[in-house]
Amino acid sequence: MPALALATAPPKVTLRSSPAVPYDGAIAAARTCYSPRVIERSEITDKQRDSIGPLTFDGGHHTVFQHAHFEFGLENISRQLVWSVLHSYPFYNSEQSSQRYVKLNEPRAFVPPITGEALDVYEHAVLNAWDAYAKLSALLKDDAWAILKELRYVRDTNSPARLKTVVDAAKSRGVEVSTHPAAKLEDIVPSIDAAHAAGAKAVNVLAAALLHSNRQVIFERTAALRMPAIYQFPESAEQGGFASYGPRIEQMIYPQLAMLVARLFRGDRPQDIPVQQPTTFELVINLTTARSVGLTIPEGLLVRADKVID
């Protein structure tokens, strides 16, 4: 049995902010739907509260009641409650204390209203889990720190080897390449615009986390400039990009990352885990996007594609 003692306290709920007259706001919103102007909450009468409110709700017009927002501070509740219960409700949002601020030598948990043997079993399970988490953290600390120290210097814009591969392949085919890096979201559109201004006729979007997570921005800007863009993951072409060639991120990349993490948790040292390259690459062409930018795809290329979206 771990020597630590379990700290607990009753749940605490604090109302941090709320509208002054939330029900009047709902009635005003309902009236605005049938008015040529915006109805203010101050205009709502007792008669309207008694009539319009119930009629609106019974009629199924529930969105007017969603305009009222309440902010609560919740303390001494379990993360299980947050993720399994509160997050299942629509229009709910939360911020919570980061796990990195949890002190491993101060186990804290919500204790339900139980007594006797049930309480002993519960506290024993929580303390054992806390102790196991602390031991696991200690095992991973040195390796995790070593990895993080290297990752802090990795940027999507400082991979000369990756860029050189693209440039060399283009030169061998008589294609001129210009590079336009984007280090943050605000750089993406200006980088595309700079490529267009430099005379680029197409864009090769490299496999960077920033670019993949903001691919919709790239879809929209390249479409506006009528510039076809090719991506590294097939999902991008399926979601609106012109074309893509590479491994599927959800079927090959994510599972591989999960296996790497699992091996680390089992105690394998990072230097003992081999780097595994994807073995399946897909060419996906989106003809709808191609037509929107005025591009005609040769039949020979369509035949070679793994998937054509039309």
Structure summarized in a few sentences:
With 310 residues, the chain is an alpha/beta fold. The chain contains 12 helices and 7 strands.
Question: What is the CATH topology assignment of the largest domain?
Answer: Rossmann fold
* Beta-strand proportion: 5-15%
How many domain regions? 2
- CATH uppermost class of the largest domain: Alpha Beta
CATH homologous superfamily of the largest domain - what is it? Response regulator
First CA to last CA: what distance? Answer: 63 Å
Name the overall outline: flat
What would the keywords be for this entry?
12 helices; alpha/beta; Rossmann fold; two-stranded antiparallel ribbon; 310 residues; five-stranded mixed β-sheet
Task: Set out the fold topology.
Elements (H helix, E strand, L loop, with lengths): L11 E6 L4 H11 L13 H13 L12 E5 L3 H6 L31 H36 L8 H12 L13 H13 L5 E2 L4 H5 L1 H10 L4 E3 L2 H5 L4 E4 L2 H17 L16 E5 H6 L6 H6 L2 E3 L1
Helix pairs in contact: 1-2, 6-8
Textual characterization of the structure:
- This protein folds into two domains: 12-99, no CATH class; 160-309, Response regulator (Rossmann fold, 3-Layer(aba) Sandwich), CATH 3.40.50.
- It is built from twelve helices and seven strands.
- The protein has helices at residues 22-32, 46-58, 79-84, 116-151, 160-171, 185-197, 209-213, 215-224, 234-238, 249-265, 287-292, 299-304; strands at 12-17, 71-75, 203-204, 229-231, 243-246, 282-286, 307-309.
- The strands form two sheets. A five-stranded mixed beta sheet has the order 3-4-5-6-7. Strands 1-2 form a two-stranded antiparallel ribbon.
- Helix 9 links the parallel strand 4 (229-231) and strand 5.
- The longest helix is centred in the middle third of the chain and has 36 residues, at 116-151.
- It is flat, with a radius of gyration of 28 Å.
- The model is unreliable at 150-154 (pLDDT under 50).
